[in-house]
Amino acid sequence: MPAPAHIGVTGLAVMGRNLARNLARNGFTVAVHNRTPARTDALLEEFGAEGDFVPARSARELVAALARPRRLVIMVQAGAPTDAVIDELTPLLEPGDVLVDGGNAHFADTRRREAALRALGIHFVGAGVSGGEEGALHGPSLMPGGSKEAYAALAPVLETIAAKAPDGTPTVAHIGPDGAGHFVKMVHNGIEYADMQLIAEAYDLLRGVAGFEPAEIAETFRTWNKGRLDSYLMEITAEVLAHTDAATGRPFVDVVEDRAGQKGTGRWTVQTALDLGVPVSGIAEAVFARTVSGHTALREAARSLPGPGRTELHPEDAARFAVQVEQALYASKVAAYAQGWDMMRAAGEEYGWDLDLGAVAAIWRAGSIVRAAFLDRITEAYRADPDLPGLPADERFGRELGEAQSAWRTVVAAAARAGVPVPGFGAALAYYDSLRAERLPAALIQGQRDYFGAHTYRRTDREGAFHTRWAADRAEQPGA
To answer: 379-407: string of b/e by CB count within 10 Å (b at 16+)?
Structure first.
């Protein structure tokens, strides 16, 4: 009889299959199962030589193959399919076993599932997994949430298969209780939306205003990727822009339909931020930009609306403008990340999670889609001050935003003059100006609310809530 498996994986689509291979490659015996047995057979036939796999034809066989306390990872579609797998497995598990959901589940579902299984003595872990199919195979960034006991049981496995940061640290940490891991993964994806949108806007500006061709922009991005904008997304964007379509000989980006898809995590981020009362305008504009791109009928109908045409700059002016775009991109990126971190801070307070915001940045430094050089500095900022109100309040980030703001304004103004939409850059600059403003027009809005709804207001010169009797006061005004 074979030795019990160290861990099990059910759900062998691309992510589940690659995660199982990662585990096996790292010396773990992995029990593998799929609702359709053909996928299990295909995994063993193609990759069985990579390590020790134990095939299971049913959920009962899968559970029986595992050493106690059992560690079992679910890699199926979020929502009802995940609930169905949990319902099937739960009667077969025992107190002390650990069930891990590695899918992109909504954190509220994870909180519900964790509470239900905790009542049965079973540990449930919602683990964010970032890195795509390559990360799952070669080393992802992992964001597990759940009990400390569950993490202790999983840590030897997760720390082995996770990506390693430049300093050799595994990119995994216990995020917090119940749904904390999936919440942080959701925010990660929201930041990813914003980052991608900002890079796309930089491309559009360099092409539509500066007059650069895609191959030139690819080289510009490669140069930027050697400096403070060093990131995985910058790296792959340069590769996409440098690619030539084999069928037409045209730049690849010109033969792709300009309609961006989305799977929902960015939308979840914005919806949850509204519930928490946290401004994430950069992430929201990225989500809306994808939505606008998909409204093809409306865009076609509105294409004849008047507006400026795109005119190219003189080469010297174009080079100078490119420098300004780099500054605007960096500042906008800092603003978007700041909004994500502010959202995690608020969620920690709301749900009692006590999130280590420095540790979150540390585990995104490798494996993660948003891995970037400046994550080290975010970690440093929160290590120096765990109660930091936000990244703009950090001395170094604040100084950099201030140094970039002149170029930032120039770029946003140039975009408006050229008719190039930059919702991400514009929202980020408005966020910066909102934070630095001595007074916002919210005072007027509060007056409007009091006028039509008697919602009251607070004064700057005394404590308490006040209401103006607008009709009576208007009648008493001189000349009324």
So the answer is: bebbeeeeebebbbebeebbebbeebbeb
